[in-house]
Amino acid sequence: MPTPKPIIQVEGLAKEFRRPKRIEGPFGGIRTLFTRQYVSKLAVDGIDFTVDEGELIGYLGPNGAGKSTTIKILTGILQPTQGSVEVAGVVPWKERERNARNIGVVFGQRTQLWWDLPLRDSLELIGKLYGVERDRHRANIERFTELLGLAAFIDTPVRQLSLGQRMRGDLAAAMLPEPRILYLDEPTIGLDVVAKERIRAFIATLNKDEGTTVILTTHDLDDVEKLCRRIVLIDGGKVLYDGSVEKLKARYAPRRRLVVQLAEGARWRGVAMPGVEEAPPEEDAEPGTVALLFDPETAASAEVIAAVLADHQVTDLSIVEPELEGVVHRIYAAREAVA
Amino acid sequence: MATVASNPVPAHRQYLLLLHAAWRGQLQYRGNLVLTLIGGVLYQGVGLAFVWAVVAKFGHVGGWGMGELAFLYGVRLTAHAAWTIPFNRLNSMDWMVQRGEFDRYLIRPAGTLTQFLNWSTNIQPLGDLIGGVGVLVAASSAAPIDWSPTAVLYLLATIAGGALVECSLQLGLCGLSFRLQATYALRMNFIDNIMNNFGGYPLTIFPSVMRFALTFLLPLAFVAYLPANVLLHRTGELSVAPWLAWCAPLLGPLLFAAAYKFWYGQLKHYKSSGT
């Protein structure tokens, strides 16, 4: 079977922002207006990636890495300076409206609902604006009302909704025309734990049941760990990493942590095994706990545990997998040290 | 593959849908609605009272009596209201560009300008319209105009053309906001002010340099002054050819087509905001 063409193809994408150089001194403001000198900044600097239909990818990077710029090019908001992009067979900025029919977009920072109208009116208006057949649209509204729990506030004007309610309304609005691709730009920003969970569950359902391709931009790595199998990590406008969450951890934080709780009165005698090393004690560690770091590639977990138990009286043992949060933190920090 | 749910919708239907939503949103604030309307009428009344005070003191302005002046004022004001009702959102252009608010229009399958103009609305221009039409009706009998069907049609064409002239200047400059981020001072403090302050007077009272500027550089004369001369049989006094005065209503559609193209051309330079 031939492999299907990726739904999103990005090649050599670059975006440069230029603004006139500000001139200081007498009549600076007016001279700035007529200057031919520019300050330019490369927000995106040669990005390549492809996304297959039905994938759910996390698009990550620190502030100013070029995430939003990429998303804005993919959605047709911005034109790139260089490179080629195809989204479901459409070049977004060339056929903006055709592209808009294939995509749903949710900006955590900015609602797309009609501020002064009840949520229901916004949802109905979207059906008419996108030319969705009436019965189909009504069925969709009903389904999303249930999935997202909109019933309690669907007749409330949007300006009176809480952030979590508004976000759910925005998600419904984006998905009502049944787009093939959903872009989420920080959908859980500022939300409480329950609201976050609800939104994550909705995204997972869409991806699983409808096969919607999802591109998720977020700083909340819990979102990513719970939803995404694949990550594209960018910084300085370039792709740093593109692959699975597991491989990212294996590459940047290969070592697991074994936490040992010694029995009362027992003394720590150490473990002499290649590839196993004692971790510096943590500040909030309980007395009598010792943490070891080891790479499961060189020292199997079972052997390390056996070695510990051979020499010590132990009441508890636990293996801690590296968290994405720590991994990403390490990558960003390393980049800053280089720069 | 699943069938596609959304289907193309004609642009005019999308316009009406969004217009309807904008008005429904605005009607939520009833108290504000009434106050703004009253304010609009009063504001324009003050402008006319000023012209009246000048005429009462000097008898006439540039050879124009009160009836003729009121007619000129009424045409200008009605034309002004006629474009500001659908285009009042242009006021917020700079802010929308600076804040990256155009993002939301660009991700929907509908015209960007249509969405921008109908995102919300302002009812103040309705006050202008009430004021303008009121003055126009009162002045129509006071001014020496023979109201043949042709004259009525010409007046309607004048109002539409004048509205489009003013609208085009504003729309075109708004297009520059995509690059320059801010054009409010130029649009409102400069052009709109000139239009509002000088639009109600016969241009003959101004020095010739200014008359030239207000005819060919900033085509204020085409909004109301030139066609009013035609209807008042005063084309003999003009410093331009009478045929040009007759054709004045045609400038609006031409300028508007250019401004519309220019605005969409400049949209390519939209930079969005940082986030």
- Helix count, DSSP H or I runs of 4 or more residues of chain B: 13
Task: Identify the most extensive interface between protein chains.
Answer: A-B, 39 and 33 residues
CA(first)-CA(last) distance of chain A: 46 Å
**Stretches with pLDDT under 50, minimum 5 residues of chain B:** none
Strand content of chain A: 25-35%
Task: Tell me the CATH architecture of the largest domain in chain A.
Answer: 3-Layer(aba) Sandwich
> What is the fold-level CATH name, i.e. the topology of the largest domain in chain A?
Rossmann fold
Please state the average pLDDT score of chain A: 89
Biggest β-sheet of chain B: count, sense, barrel? none
Order of helix and strand elements from N to C terminus of chain B:
HHHHHHHHHHHHH
Looking at the structure, what is the overall shape of chain B? globular
Write up what this structure looks like.
The complex is a heterodimer of chains A (339) and B (275). By secondary structure, chain A is of the alpha/beta class. Chain A has two domains: 8-249, Rossmann fold, CATH 3.40.50.300; 254-321. Chain A is built from eleven helices and 13 strands. In chain A, the strands form three sheets. In chain A, strands 5-6-7-3-8-9 form a six-stranded mixed β-sheet, with helices on both faces. In chain A, strands 11-12-10-13 form a four-stranded antiparallel β-sheet, covered by helices on one side. Chain A has a three-stranded antiparallel β-sheet with strand order 2-1-4. The mean pLDDT of chain A is 89. By secondary structure, chain B is mostly helical. In chain B, 68% of the residues lie in helices and 0% in strands. Chain B is built from 13 helices and no strands. Chain B has helices spanning 11-26, 30-58, 66-87, 93-98, 103-106, 112-117, 124-142, 149-180, 184-198, 208-217, 225-231, 242-246, 251-267. The longest helix of chain B has 32 residues, at 149-180. The mean pLDDT of chain B is 90. Classes of the chains: A alpha/beta (339), B mainly alpha (275). Chain A binds chain B through residues 17, 68, 72, 75-79, 96-98, 100-101, 103, 105, 107, 109-110, 112, 114-117, 121, 125, 128-133, 136-137, 140, 157, 177-178, 210-211, and chain B through 2, 4-9, 14, 17-18, 21, 24-26, 28-29, 100-104, 106-110, 120, 268, 270-272, 274-275. Chain B: Keywords: Membrane, Transmembrane, Transmembrane helix. Chain B: This is ABC transporter permease. Chain B: Pfam families: ABC2_membrane_6. Chain B: The chain crosses the membrane at residues 33-55, 126-145, 151-178, 198-223, 243-263.
